[in-house]
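We emphasize that the prediction below concerns an isolated chain of 505 residues; any contacts that depend on oligomerization or on bound cofactors are therefore not represented. The input was used exactly as deposited, without trimming of termini.
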Amino acid sequence: MSTPRASAWVRGWRGDLLAAAGGALLPWAFSPFFAWPLALVSVACLFAACLDATPRRAAFRGWSFGLLAFGVGVSWIVSSFQFAHIALPVAIVLTAGFVVFLGVFTAASAWAAARLRARLGPEVALLAVFPGTFVLGEWLRGWFLTGFTWLQLGYSQVDGPLAGVLPLGGVYAASLTVAVMAGALVMLAVRPGRRAALALLGVSAVSAALVLAGEREWTRPAGAALTVALVQGNVAQDQKWLQQMRGPTLERYMALTAPHLGADLVVWPETALPGRRRVMQPFIDRLDQLARDAGSAVLFGVPEWDGDPLRPYNSVLLAGSAAGRYRKRHLVPFGEYLPADTLLRPITRALGIPVSDFAGGGAAQAPLEAAGYRIATFICYEIAFGNEVIRALPEAALIVTVSNDAWFGNSLGPHQHLQMARARALETGRAVLRATNTGITALVDERGRVAGRLPQFEAGALGGQVTPRAGATPYVRVGDAPALVVSLLLACGAALLAGIGRRRR
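Result of the prediction step, given as a token string:
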């Protein structure tokens, strides 16, 4: 059975425009706008535009969707290039190239959907093939070259009605739920009638059941609440590493911390100490003694050069009533290391593009412990990967993430980054303590709700209490595999069964 001819409003240039418009709508579904229904509308536009398109036309429409979505949603990347002393025209070109590259993933998923849906009815195509290929495209983007997970559909639901899906199956399960609902909406628009209405009703019922199941209290308190403080130094990125700023920066952090000495845990941001550990050691010894006398543990970021002096580690250390160290494992491609170094290094040198060359921490690092509990610790980019966060669970009682979002300036980036950290809280049933240099520093409870936050671009310290948690959500136990397997079955299973049926006939 072939799909019926689509309505005139999705043929030719109208379909191209519809797909691009859907992409332009997508970023508004995420923080700081929180217009979560637009995630449904956005993907529905793409599915409608591609339902009756040839694979080549569907690929173009998928690419234009991605081009607009990422062109608007991750335009903040241009700021990070500028802070790396790259001229603005070059930064714009590099950001545009990255956006074009990201669009390839939505193009590939749209092309695959158009190929697989041949001889399938619109119901199967919209409820299975299109959602499945879309989510597999998100997964591929979140894996290739160590992954880029921004603007995945599931994150839009942190403040939406499908938030309860996150502890069940993670962000990909939430993405799949949104995509299937979008397909049902398109089916109702393309072929209105009893069958489409029943399909939409069925999808809504299943989604509601998932939400209700996710509302269950999957984790439990592991002890009394801990007193914590998160320190935001607000040191501008273009001043952070200046020699003359080192003393004022350190004294600022000490002054902000002093009223909170005595708290169980004080958290400073990524690379809060603006110099290598060996140079900072006298200050670290002073901090260690003050925190020890007050009975506090202080977690702070500092770069370390151990062994090879050209390969620093992005590290966090504990001082005071606890000791320990964690070195960042998941490095940012192009930001902290250069993929395909042999091939790309001559190009970056010829263009005068500086590229950091950090070393990654080992996979078998001992967990940090403070105030009698294990702490799952992640630096910046790492909090964007749920499958990596759950490796520290269920042993860890809370999650700490430190970052320096000054790289992103006053843009969408810090807001999106916080939303991803909130998704990790929902997925794991753990409170998340997020300390950043310029914002957004926040306390997030185990339900993903922001219990307190500091204004951006202001120095300050956020005090509060968090409850350590024990137990595990279904997502902590099974990870992304179920959502990805279901996506694969939806994408390929229907087409495979249709092919078998044709051969038998």
